[in-house]
C-alpha cells in the first residue's frame, strides 16, 4: 500500500513538472514572437491557441484599456455580448486585483463565466479577462489562473511597448519635420537687408516655437523700381514651409515678367489653390514702387494693413482682395496707388504683432499701432523696429503668442 502511494506521488510530480515545462515553452514562444515584433493580431491568436488547446479554456473575453475605455480585442466561445455590456460588467469588479471566481456573481453577464482575471500596473487597470467553460480544479486551479494572468501580462506589456515605440517614432518624425521646415524657412528669409540711395529696408523676424508661417521679401527689379511682399501662410510644419517656398519662387518668376500687380496676384492665387486644393491659404501685402514717378502701387490680399507714415500722418493701406488660395476666381481685386513723399516710412507686419499676451491692463490694437507709427515714423527702419518691439515687451509687458514679422522701409 505504501508503494502505491509513493508511485501516485511520483506520477503527480511528473505531471506537474511536464505542465510547468509546457507553460515555460508557451511563454518562450510568446516572448520570441514579441522579440520578432510580431503583429498584434498574431500575438492575440497565439494567446487563444494556448488557452484553447493547452489549458482547455472554452470561452474567453479579453478587454484592454484604450483611450480611457475598455475594448474587447479577443473573444471566442459562447454567445457574443456587446462591448459596452462587457465593459460595464467588468467595471463592477474594478477593485479586484487578483483572479477571482464569478460563476455565482449577481451580474447576468459575469455569471456566464467561471473566472475574472485583472491585469494591473500599479493602481492602473490595463486589461480584464473573462474565462468560461474552464473545468480545472484542485491544486492546478491556482497555478493555471496565475499562468493565464502572467501570459496576458506579458502580452499587455508588449502592446504597451509597441504603442510607446510608435509614439516615439511619431515624435521623432515630427521633430525631423520641424528641423526640415526650419531649414526651408531659413532659406526663404533674405540674408541681407537692402539699402541704397532710394530706400532703406529693416526687418525683424521672430518665429514662435522655432518654426513659423511668415514670409517677407524685397526685390530690386531695375534701377527705378523695386517690389516687396510680406505674407503669412496658414498652418505650420514642412508642408507650410514648402508651400511658402513655392510661393516665393512663383512671385520671383512673375515679378520679373509682369508689371501689373493684379495679374501677379491672380496668378499666385491660382498656383496656391492648385497646390493646396483649398486646404491652405496665404494672406499677403504686395507692393511695387517706381522711384522716378514716386508712385506706389499695392494690393492687400486679406493681410494686416501696411501703414504709410508721411507728413506727420499714419495711413493704413487696405485696398486689395481676399486671401489667396481659397477661391478659383477672386471675388474682387482692387489695386491701390499712392504718391510717396521723401522721408516716408512704410511699416509692414504680420498678425503676430497684434497677438500679444499682456500682463498689464494696457490695450494694444491697430489704433495704438497707428499712434505709435505717427509718433516714431521719423526713425530709421531698424531703430523703429527695435523701439516698437521694446515698447511691447517692456511698456506693455506683453509676450508674443504667434510669429512676428516686421518689414519696414524708409523711402528717400
TrEMBL record:
Q: Name one Pfam family in it.
A: SpoIIE
User: Keywords on this record?
Assistant: Hydrolase
SMART domains, per the entry: PP2C_SIG
Q: Which PROSITE patterns match?
A: PPM_2
Q: Where is the PPM-type phosphatase domain?
A: 192-411
UniProt keyword Hydrolase, yes or no? yes
- GO molecular function, a single term: phosphatase activity
Write down what this protein is called.
Serine/threonine-protein phosphatase
**Which organism is this protein's natural source?**
Mucilaginibacter ginsenosidivorax
